[in-house]
Amino acid sequence: MKQELYDLAERAIKIAKSAGADDCRVSIGGERFVEISYRDRKPENIKEASTKGLQVEIFVNKRYSSQSTSDLRPESLKTFIENAVALTKLLAEDPFRTLPDPKYYQGRSTIDLKQYDPDYEKVTPENRHSFVKAIEESCLARGGDKVISVTAGCYDSHSEQLLMTSNGFDGYEEASVFYGGAEMTAKDEGDRRPAEYSFAVALSRKALPRPEDIGADAAARALSLLGAKKIRTETLPIIIENRVVSRFGGGFMQAMFGRSIQQKQSFLADKKGQKVASDALTLIDDPFIPGGLGSRTFDGEGMAAKKRVMIDAGVMKDFYVDWYYSRKLGWEPTTGSPSNLIIPPGKRSVKEIMRDLGRGILITGFIGGNSNSTTGDTSIGITGQLFEKGEPVHPVSEMNIADNHLKIWQRLAEAANDPYEYSQQRFPSLVFTDVVVSGI
Question: How far is residue 169's CA from residue 123's CA, in Å, rounded to a whole number?
Fold first, then answer.
């Protein structure tokens, strides 16, 4: 289908230019996916679909619009694009809206990022159903008589994406994705029904863990919350588990984008070159990890991907600034979105760290919460395990952390040796000292 996408993109650009566009960018995507879920040992949902669509971004007379269609028939597409150009001419001027300078397209890596699993076409319906059944059975067995309900599922897709601009860029990507997961709700005291989940996602089916391990982990996590209770408000060390670090760190990252900075909604806007966290925090954006969920050789604007150190030993080094906001800010563009995010792992396991911390909380989940990208203030509910001398005491819930990102990240003490594999954000568990955890 690759050549078909190229032909379609070239035709779309030609129509746009003929209709009066100064420039345009065309993105065409096609995907075929299969999704299956089981509940009560029976299929609950089986879905298979193929989609294809085109997005065209029009630049004309210092005006801009972005419009999409799934009707790719020649005459329909011609009418759609001509109307898009005509409508764009009616919009207000925005002189900052242009395609990137073509020099930013240069230097694209030719590395094989292994985004597509060549065995994808060999996956059969039987493979999918047996995978989900194994997840569910394992979860039910591990949960035993505490199970209220289990939902298990899998998803896989094959996609193609083409990006082409009228000023000389074209790039094609083909990828596969595989997912398996389960959620279990457990019986607890009174009307409490704690629920937890486990999942894994990868570009290759072989990179997923055994389905039995996914199911057992979901059950173990749900059971670990039985009998959860609040403790008194206390200042203690906390460990944020690897798979949920991104949830907490997301509030910090909101302030790293050009839009937030230009709109004066970033507490990091004037912090480049300054300490914003302890020496324990280094954040690397690496688009060149083979098999990485965020790997790429170019971004959504066609700019060549580069490996960047965003935070180096606590010092703010760079921001996510796309072409548009680079022009509004008068800054050099970087990229408008993260690729694979890495916090380098430490040398010790979570268990080893827990033994040395004395009394603390291992946070395994967050509930609700908010983060103010302008001030850095953040507040979020937590679930997890109170521990002493490395041993769990009891689960905790209905508790809260409220702090400021510029303060709490200064108290980051250590990263564990367990980077999370099944995410674009490959973060290890993180240890913070002297955190006020609000409870009773």
Answer: 34
What is the reported pLDDT for 389?
87
315-316 vs 341-342, strand pairing mode: unpaired
* Domain coverage including residue 77: 2-36+44-99
Query: Is residue 151 included in any domain, yes or no?
Result: no
Please report whether residue 180 resides in a domain. Answer: no
pLDDT-derived band at 440 (thresholds 50, 70, 90) equals: confident
Structure tokens at 272: 């480049």
Indicate which CATH number applies to the domain containing 80. Answer: 3.30.2290.10
b/e 288-322 (16+ beta carbons within 10 angstroms → b): bbeebbbbbbbbebbbbbbebebbeebbbebbbbb
User: How many separate domains does the chain show?
Assistant: 2
Among 75, 99, 123, give the residue marking a domain's end: 99
Chain Cα centroid distance, residue 227: 32
Task: Look at residues 99, 120, 145 and tell me which one is the last residue of a structural domain.
Answer: 99
The CA–CA distances, whole Å, from 397 to 211, 220, 258, 379 equal 28, 16, 36, 15
Assigned domain for 215 exists: no
Residue 138 lies in a domain: no
Q: What is the Rg, in whole angstroms, of the alpha carbon atoms belonging to the chain?
A: 24
pTM metric for this prediction: 0.95
